[in-house]
Amino acid sequence: MRQYSKKTFVWIAWMWMIFFLMPTFEGVHEYTKGLDPSWCIALKVAIENKFRFGQDFLFTYGPLGFLNTGYIPSGFVYQLVSFLVHLLIQVGFVVLIIEIVKKSASKVIALFFAGLCFFPYRFVGDLSFTLLILQIGFLLLFLQNKKIYSLGIVTIITIIAFFIKLNLSLAMLVIWFGSLLFFVLRRYLTIKFATVLASSTIVLMLILAFILQTDILIYLTSGVKLIDGYIDAQAVMNDINGIRLVLALLALLVIISLFLGICWDYLPFKVNNKELIADRFYVICLIAMSLFLSYKQSFASLSSTNLYGFFLFFPVMIGLILLVENSKKIQIKVIVLILCSLLFRNAIHWYWTGNLRDYVFSALPTAKKDLGNWQHRESTIEGIGTFISTSSVVRFFSHSFDDENITYTKEDVLERSFPHSVNEYLSKGTVDILPWEISYIMVNKLKYNPRPIVQTYQAYSGYLDSLNAQKYQSSTAPDYLLYQEFPYREQYFFWDEDRTKLCMLANYKVVDTLAVKQSVGYDSLLVLKQNTNKKTVQYNLAKKVTVKTFEKIDLPDSDELLFLKFNLKYSLFGQITRLAFQPPYLFVNFVYDDNRVERFRVIPSVLKGGVIANIKVKSFSDASTFFNTKGLKNTKIKSIQLDSPYQWGFSDSTEISIEKVIF
To answer: What CATH number should be reported for the domain holding residue 598?
Structure first.
């Protein structure tokens, strides 16, 4: 009877995964315009055109990043890789669910919670975090049964993750090598075997880097700078204000308190067995680290969707404790914590959708897309049919190896098409676009020649900006540039990528201005063409001084462009808040030559790299004047002053340098 029961639940676990998880691994079959689709498409194009990652193309996503975005490059090989990786993930989760079921006295309850944990509305949409959960799950499984196959799977997962998303994969490498050391110290592995596993990981990563055309050293070093700058540049609170923010933080506080309650049971004085203490310390460190990574991902840019994302992964990560924990008391606490996180997650889901029908037939965090599919149905029955068909195994297989060309929606094509006369001269050369809207290049079938950091808002440090500037100064620079200027969040967006803009001034000239009709109004773009003779940009130091961080700085009256650098540093409290939640926000007040004053958000890492300080470029008209007159006819900024509601978050004094720009 026991064997029969065991087999029954194993089959239930398998069928659960096959019919519910597999369909979520579906590639994108229609492009859209916008910020996020732009980098997803750029990543796909970079892979198809065999760009060298780390050198020609640099992003937080790597050459296997398409496994996360769904924008799968053309070719059977990429489809096959996608299928195999997703199959590995499915099988991995099946194994973990079965192990949870095996350890529990109540099989029905165990399977119920395993299902809730491992199938929370397409949580596998973020493949990098899915792999993190799998990595930790199989490390804990090895801790439980000491079966070597678990470590083999962890090796594969760690290597794949490294080429998908660099920022999270660095943490996964630390977890992997740290775990090997722990297993050696606990004598679960011999030093020789642990060395073989570590060496195999490194060698296979180098081989795969060669195959995937990745300059691994630059990929690593530059990627670290991308990750560090991301914390400052992307810290924002979207559509969460007032009472909603308070409630969100209270929900988080409840979750943290309950988790600390579980940690309390792991304290040394609660157990006498030293070996058990070491293993429990390892377990709690793994789970705590994964939760912190998920928390930082969600709260860097705080919004309803990101909050949902945190509560999406939380129950899965907590549920992994059930793989290794025999104490019924701790198991009950884990289940209570899972239920609480499920409650918060569904509360956010309800808040997003607003009514029962949309709540039931939508799948956050892609709720907007799913709701669109649902609401456009003529009847409820048709809507249910659409929902089921988009989540069926049949649809997955029917599209997995479909190599048709991906196209834009008809509406997007209409809003992105250039006149024939424009395409005629643009098609004779290569093209890049600033700040990011690649759909203009794709729709008009132009030859895309991107700078390494493909989106302006991602070049959020002097080092990253300089990589793009070098591209525009080099022999591989694009022949034409398309340029737009528009607001980005509450930031003074012109200060992003200023070294690159100065190289544009030196080596390009405006040859056309485009007004592309949109559903509402027009989209304005400048067309710049590369000059025959290249010039270099030189910076002559005019002034270097240490000032009080928040005092007013009067800029010299000059017709030349002034390049200002702030060597701004966080205070100890600022560094703590930057790590624990978000960095303290920084603002700048401009006083123009007509005595008008404006206030903008600014990014410390951008200020440190250097900005064009003495002219205003806030609109498309300002940008056109800047590129046509080299800033001579732009409104002048005569003084700037940093400001912050959190002045305690920054050092009292800052070293600044003012340089004159000479072409």
So the answer is: 2.60.120
Residue 109 belongs to some domain of the structure: no
| Partner residues linked to 483 by β-bridges | 434, 526
- Provide, rounded to the nearest whole percent, the portion of the chain with pLDDT above 70: 84
Mean pLDDT, residues 85-98: 83
Query: Tell me: the pLDDT tens digits for 596-630?
Result: 999 999 999 999 999 999 999 999 999 999 999 99
Q: Is 77 a member of any domain? A: no
Cα–Cα dist 330/336, whole Å:
10
Count of other CB atoms within 10 angstroms of residue 559: 9
627 and 549 in one domain?
A: yes
Give the separation between CA 220 and CA 216, rounded to whole angstroms: 6
Count: domains in the chain = 4
> For the chain, how far is it from start to end, CA to CA, in angstroms?
84
C-alpha distances out from residue 552 to 555, 589, 634, Å = 10, 9, 22
| Apex 483 CA angle, 480 and 488, nearest 5 | 150
Tell me: do 629 and 655 sit in the same domain: yes
Burial (0-12, 13-18, 19+ Cβ within 10 Å), 403: exposed
Task: Say yes or no to pLDDT of 536 above 70.
Answer: yes
Picking from 298, 333, 362, the residue at the C-terminal end of a domain is: 362
Could you give the C-alpha distances from 432 to 458, 482, 493, 527, 546, in angstroms and in order?
Answer: 15, 6, 19, 10, 39
The more confidently predicted of residues 367 and 202 is 202
The model's pLDDT over 368-394, given as tens digits with 9 standing for 90+, comes to 444 445 455 445 555 555 555 554 455
Residues comprising the chain, all counted: 663
Neighbours of 370 (CB within 10 A): 22
Query: Residue 448 sits in which domain range?
Result: 410-530
Alpha-helix runs per DSSP H in 234-273: 242-264
pLDDT 10s digits, 541-570: 888 999 999 999 999 888 889 999 999 999
User: Distance between CA atoms of 111 and 309, rounded to whole angstroms?
Assistant: 23
Instruction: Output the domain CATH number for residue 446.
Output: 3.40.190
Does residue 555 sit in the same domain as residue 654?
A: yes
Peptide bond into 23 cis (omega under 30): no
Q: How many CB atoms lie within 10 A of CB 621?
A: 12
- Among 508, 530, 552, which residue terminates a domain? 530
Instruction: State pLDDT tens for residues 273-285.
Output: 777 788 888 998 9
Comparing C-alpha atoms, which of 564, 570, 568, 569 is closest to residue 590?
A: 564
Q: What is the DSSP string of 524-567?
A: EEEEEEE-SS----EEEEEEEEEEETTS-EEPP--SS-EEEEEE
pLDDT at 397 exceeding the cut of 70? no
Per-residue pLDDT tens over the stretch 282-300: 998 999 999 888 888 877 7
Q: Flag the least confident range among 145-154, 183-192, 391-400, 476-485.
A: 391-400
Model pTM score? 0.87
Strand 430-434 versus strand 480-483 pairing type: parallel
